[in-house]
Every structure is written in C-alpha cells, then in structure tokens.
Amino acid sequence: MKKLIAKLQNFIIIVIIHLFNCLPIKNNKIFFFSYYGSQYGCNPKYITEYILDNYPENTFDIVWAFTESERKNVPEDIRKVRVMTLKYFYELCTSKVIVTNFRTTDYFIKRKNQYYIQTWHSSLRLKQIEKDAEESLPAHYLEMAKNDSKKCDLLLSGCKFSSDIFKRAFWYNGEIFESGTPRNDVLVNSNPELRKQIFKRLNVNGDKKIILYAPTFRNSSNLDIYKMDYSSIIKELHSRFGGEWLFFIKLHPHLASRSKEILQGENNVIDASSYDDIQELLSIADVLLTDYSSLMFDYAITKRPCFLYVPDIKEYTAKERGLYFNITGLPFFHSTDQSNLRDQIRKFNEEKYQLGLDRFSLQTGSFENGKACERLVKRIEVQCYPEKEEDVYEAV
User: Fold this and answer.
1) Which of 67, 170, 228, 364 could bridge to 37 as Cys pair (CB 3.0-4.6 Å)?
2) Picking from 10-19, 265-274, 342-351, which range would have the lowest pLDDT averaged per residue?
C-alpha cells in the first residue's frame, strides 16, 4: 500500500511540474537552494548577498527554498518557499537561473531556456568524489548525479586540480567556470565589521582567540574519535601563540544532535554545531583543527595555522573513501594522537608552514582571488538580461 501511495504522489508531482513548465519563465528570477534546502549558506548564500549588496532593488527576483517554514538570518529581500510545496515547484519551474551546491533530483525537470549553475560545495577535496569514488557510493546517488550533470550549464571550479577532477569524474562535458569559489571570497577579503558581528551573534568576547575544531563525519557510531583534551590543547596554544583561547566545535550535521555526548560540559568550549555558515566561523578562527574535511583547503586561503588530527587514518582510507592526496604531502601538520598534536602546536614553524602553503597553491592552481561572486553574477546578469551582454563583459 505504501509503495502504491508513493507512486501516486510521484505521478502527481510530475504532472504538476509539467503543467508549471508550460508557464512563462520570469527572466530575472533566480532560484537558490543549499544542501537540499537545509540551510542558508555555502556558495548560494554568498552569490545572493553579493547581488543584494551590489545591484539595485528589483534587478533580480531572488527565491530561496528551505525545508522549514521559518528561517533565521535570511535577508528580508529574499522570497522564501518551502521545499516540495506547490509554490516551490511553481518558483522552480518559472525561474530563469537555478543555483545549487548539491545534486538535483528528478523533480527538477529543466526547461530549454533555463540556466542551471552547479556551484558544488568545496573548492578542493581530500576525499574522492563521484566517479572516482563510484564503488563506495549508493547506486541511486550515482544515477541522480549522472542525470544532474546532463542538466548542468555551468560548473564552478576553485582550482585547476578541481577542474581536472570534474572533467574526469563528473560525467560532465560542459563549461567549467574557473573563477574561484564564491564562499571563499569572505576568506580572501578581510572584513573587520563581519568579525565583530559574528562574535556578537555568538556572544563571545572579541578579545579571545579562537581554535575551530571541525571534524568530518564517519560511518562508524564510535564518538570517542571526536573527543579531545581541550584544556591541554588550549594551554599549548597560549604558550605558542599567546592570548586567551576558546575552542569552537562545529560538528557535522549528522552529529550535531549528539554534541553533548562529545563535549561533556568542557570549560572554554563552545558548541557551534548549529551555526549555519561554516565560512563565517573559518573567517574568525585563528587556528583550524580538522581531519579529512575539505575545509582545510578553504582555510588555507587565510594563511593561518591548520592542524589535522587523523587517529584513524588507516581505517578511514580502508573503509570510507580513497584520498586525492597523501596526508604527508599536504602543507598542514598532521597527528595520529593528541600528544603528538600538542607537540606540533608547541613546535609550529611559521616559515615552513607558509612555504608549504605557497607550494601547494601553485601545485593545485588556485583560482581564488576574492572576486568569484562578482564574476559569476556578471555571467548570471547576461542570462537574465542578454541585451546587456557587451556592457557586462566590458565591466569584467
């Protein structure tokens, strides 16, 4: 009976989509969603806010889709729709430009005159993705990914290394826009006011220094792998870099509900797992501590210290996914136990670290220069206002 109901619901949705696809496309409407509507963040957020800050009101009609009816910290100029509602499908079907950072489902039936921009959700990755990780990905995801790539008109790339991955592993032969990652503009361009706003929002003293711990998700249910000796690490940070330190913990969304089990009421530790925008946390962090997360490559833009804590490196690479880089070949100092981590903080060599970052940036061919949003929105402007194409490209 459940299968029958599901088939009927699917049939009704497809009929609705085909009906809405007969309606006129609104040429200045841009439809955004991030991680299937679960957050206001990542590349779509920074593209949106660049538009709001740099274009006259009503130049673009911006629509965002969310899984919840109410969303905080979303600008008032943005129209919001709830995913899978009638209004959601109407707005999606009648938008000129669609922007997302993840794969779209079969419920996005792209029209001939629509323009679909896939921003992806990292500038560079340590873990293998898509066709490169085909053996470890579910069959239904692989099918969805292949279908999504067929719809795509523009795929963003943060570096030459990523472009090569996309060409090989994305089932995509279209244009790759090699102009950087929109969400990384905030890490290239210093903004003291934003820093103050973030500290205020988190109710944190602006004089404190921040170490951000942002581990990735494992399939294992063992939480011990995420637990740290926070106080000892803070002592080493104070000894090496000076100042008073706070530990910010940003757990993966799949782990956020279990943060109390991991943190266990530690002092000088703030649970930032519910904070929507990881890029903002990266922008205020004085040190990043992570493991296999692609955040390390974003954070490298700031040139601030980054340490990798990888106690399960052998198990992770054997059971999870293969890696694009050997950990020892990365410019970040890595440890397999916390004693060694504290030792590496104590002996941190600034000059060696900066040289390693510079070499790695040259090796990967970074496109990050703080103008990714500007260049992409000029491309969007051409799609929405083709008569302005010459003026737009002259401006770029």
Assistant:
1) 67
2) 265-274
Spatial separation of the C-alpha atoms in residues 375 and 182, rounded to whole Å: 9
CATH superfamily for domain 191-364: CDP-glycerol glycerophosphotransferase, C-terminal domain (3.40.50.12580)
Residue 25 is classified by DSSP as P
Q: Which CATH class is domain 16-185+370-395?
A: alpha beta
The answer to whether residue 392 scores a pLDDT higher than 70 is no
What are the phi and psi torsion angles at 247 (to 5°)? -95, 115
Q: Which helix (H) or strand (E) holds 156?
A: strand 154-156
Rounded to whole angstroms, how far apart are CA atoms 43 and 34? Answer: 8
Q: CB pairs under 8 A, 24+ apart, for 135-144?
A: 136/320, 136/321, 141/103, 144/103, 144/104, 144/105, 144/106
At position 19, the amino acid (one-letter code) is L
Which amino acid is it at 376?
Answer: L
Question: What's the Cα-to-Cα distance from 42 to each of 45, 79, 277, rounded to whole Å?
Answer: 6, 18, 7
pTM: 0.93
Residue 282's nearest CA partner among 162, 161, 188, 157 is 188
Residue 234 has pLDDT above 80, yes or no: yes
Same fold, 16-185+370-395 and 191-364: yes
